[in-house]
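Hi team,

Below is the intake form for Glycosyltransferase from Pseudomonas cavernae. Please confirm the fields before the structure is written into the shared record.

FORM ID: S-0412
PROTEIN: Glycosyltransferase
ORGANISM: Pseudomonas cavernae
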Amino acid sequence: MSTATVVVSCYNQEQYIRDCLESILSQKTDFSFDILVSDDCSVDRTQSIIKEYADKQPEKFKLILREKNVGVSINYTRAHNSATGDVVFHIDGDDVMLPGKLQKQFDLFRGNSDVNLVFHRARYFSDDGSYEIETGSPSLQEGGLMHFGMSDLALWGPITVHSAYAYRRNSRRTRTISSDFTEWFFALDSLSQNGRAIYIDEVLVKYRCNPSGSTYLSTKIGRVKVYSIYFRDVFHYYRSCPGVRKQLYANCLFTSLAMLRAKCGFSTEAIFFLIRNIYNFRPWLLFDVFKMRKSVAPEQRIR
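The structure came back. Fields below:
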């Protein structure tokens, strides 16, 4: 194993895409990697900016410039399908890698042939500097690392941001998807045929999170939509992976309670799911979800 691909998905990010690409190019590595940028038919200057980079380093960049907007999920999936490296990293076009990110994740794949997924902590930040906060640390083993498998991730749900994910390319099973999904969906996909994952207790990416931004999470309607997408992912794996149904049930129950606490109402589909499958309820698993979600939640504000 000697190569990697960094996938950058973007849409209307002319303000941020330079910072993102520069943060990738500044990474010091002992392995070769290419940068695949997939733009979802931006209407601002995003495409012209990424063309500038590709013109200067054609051997480094591969561009996918869509002529029609296909949406976040399809753009993400098709871009990752085009990756050719043995290890694939993902970053959104408005996020920023911190020094050492690529090398530290890659080393864990190189040194552990059974590891399919590696991710790490993140720092949320806003453009105006009013919001900057780091995600917390889970219970770690020796060396500041946490090793886990599919049943653990099925129980916990997402424990970091999608710009922190890296996976072994041959571990992916799902190549096409027709609906929206969360990054947790593909994380589980990489663990569905055995293999394990490693979590690094270090902040290695800056994740842009403007309160008034255009992302789903910036509005209540958007947050409700994210919950709906996430529940659909849970239901998918509940059907396809019977070995982790108890974990997925606890995950769904905890997430339903979190949805109510966030004043986003409740999901009728999730309620019916929980009633129909109540025989999978294990109270100690619910407590385990709570402990993990609490440990990785953002810590006190830095600024």
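SUMMARY LINE: The chain has a mean pLDDT of 91.

Thanks, M.
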